[in-house]
Amino acid sequence: MGSGVHVNTVHSTTLRPSSRTPGLLAVSLCLLVAGFGIPAAVAAQESPAGLVMRVFGADSDQGLELASVQIAGTGLAVLTDGVGLAALWEIPPGPRVVQVSRLGYKTERIRIEFPPDSTVAAEVSLLVSPISVEGVEVIADIGSPALRASGFFQRRIAGQGTFITPDEMKKWRAYPDLSRPLSQILGFWVSWDRLSRNLSVLSTRGPVSFNRGCRPTLFVDGMRWVGDQSFLNTLRPRQGQAIEAYAGPGQVPAQFRSASACGVLVIWMR
């Protein structure tokens, strides 16, 4: 089975998460993806569009958890849940490029038209990406073949940046958030608000004081994350495979170069 895309657009339809009925959204998304039937509108919206997407592996038809769904040029991004579902709202109407990626699979870039006041339902299947790992001597739990092929361990040997390996990540699997492993990274400061349960990572070396929020550029599975840091609140150490971080622009490898002077944080998922 090859990669593929199935897109369906429903006009004048709005689905929004509700804090009072948290299970309603999940049920609605399943219905959308399985049969593309849209339940009754929850509220009327005029301009923005929405996207409900299911991402699955072409090799198994199983939903892919923690796949990245990003809409180019908007700053909107989300990770899929445990059954491969993702939802994005407040999308500016018009043609948009949606990028879907996951470690170990080929990235798909899809052009989708988003009419005003519509919800677009889509299914995307990703092909497994062939990985060559010749010359690797396995002496410990060094993660997936995709992580090895990414150059993670070569960059670690080069001595630039701070690295948390798969073996080291095991120590924090029982913790409910990433604050512990992230606090081990040199050149960054981790802020954890216990009331709002909001996790933030700030650079201590950028041109702006960390008290004023010098935020590093984020990469997930080697792809630049276009959204904000709020997705960090949803991640658990057991979902992360490894982390690498570069506090200053002079340390950043070519594949992670960005205009940010606040460093780079790269998270590799399982």
Sequence of strands across the biggest β-sheet: 9-14-15-12-13
Rounded to the nearest angstrom, the distance between the terminal CA atoms is 23 Å
What best-fitting shape do the alpha-carbon axes yield?
globular
Main β sheet profile: 5 strands, mixed
Q: Encode the helix/strand succession as letters.
A: EHEEEEEEEHHEHHEEEEEE
- Radius of gyration based on Cα positions: 19 Å
Query: What proportion of the residues form beta strands (DSSP E)?
Result: 25-35%
* pLDDT < 50 stretches: 11-45, 136-141
Share of helical residues: 10-25%
Classification by helices and strands: mainly beta
The total count of helices amounts to 5
Q: Can you give the mean pLDDT?
A: 75
Strand tally: 15
Characterize the structure shown.
The protein is mainly beta. 13% of the residues lie in helices and 33% in strands. It is built from five helices and 15 strands. It has helices spanning 22-35, 145-149, 152-158, 166-169, 179-182; strands spanning 4-11, 49-57, 68-71, 76-79, 85-91, 94-101, 108-114, 118-126, 162-164, 188-193, 198-203, 217-220, 223-224, 240-246, 264-269. The strands form four sheets. It has a five-stranded mixed beta sheet. It has a four-stranded mixed beta sheet with strand order 1-8-2-5, covered by helices on one side. The chain has a four-stranded antiparallel beta sheet with strand order 4-3-6-7, with no helix packed on it. The model is unreliable at 11-45 and 136-141 (pLDDT under 50).
